[in-house]
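Predict structure. Input: Rhomboid family intramembrane serine protease, 247 residues.
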Amino acid sequence: MVGDFRALVGAAGRAVLRPSAPVTYGLIALCCVLFVLGPAGGLNPAYGTGGELLAAQRAYFLRWGVVPAELFAGVPRAVLTPATALFVHGSWVHLLGNMLFLYVFGALTEDRMGRVQFTLFYVGCGCLALLGYAAANASSAQPLVGASGAISAVLGAFLFLFPRARVTSLLPFLFFLPLRFPAWVVLPFWAALQWLAASRSPQGPGVAYLAHVVGFGLGFAYAWARYGPATKVKAAPPPAPEGENQP
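Output follows.
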């Protein structure tokens, strides 16, 4: 799966300053280490070069990725692949795009949820997102890998918890000028694009837009059910202009 994260590059929430997010940073480190050591990164000489490296990459994705046809055929080794696939990435672009989004949106979400809850949330929603895509392509023998579904869930939770956080966006049709919008504008727009892409994409392997949609919906629904409107974190008001009386 190639993560379709191309528009967003940053976010800032006023509600929490410099949050402690060891799980988020640990997930990023783990994914990066596994990628560099594995055949997908192309840096480990143990996997050879050329055709030998390509064969090793295919075997690696088939072993640790979700293969829908095997999963729903009851192949024993496929049972755990929805979890292992979250830590496997297909290319440098895939890895860096996903890790950028996890870095930007994961820290505040983890700080709000707590370490244990965030870990269970990330893995659980990520597995369900991959299963949702696999169920829609049950006959596919193409391996599905990547953390996009889990990170989409983080985006969904972030939208509920920090709707007023300012998100820096790069818009191609505006010559990639960096513009800042509230999360409640940017993230639903992103989710709508994923939904449109999922509905128009042909059946079969490719960018797993459906996993993005499922993950985003699960993340938002979980945050809504767990915290509710009364406990939603709101952004702090900006400081008053100089000379204005403070309350």
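Residues 19-226 form a domain with the Rhomboid-like fold fold (CATH 1.20.1540.10).
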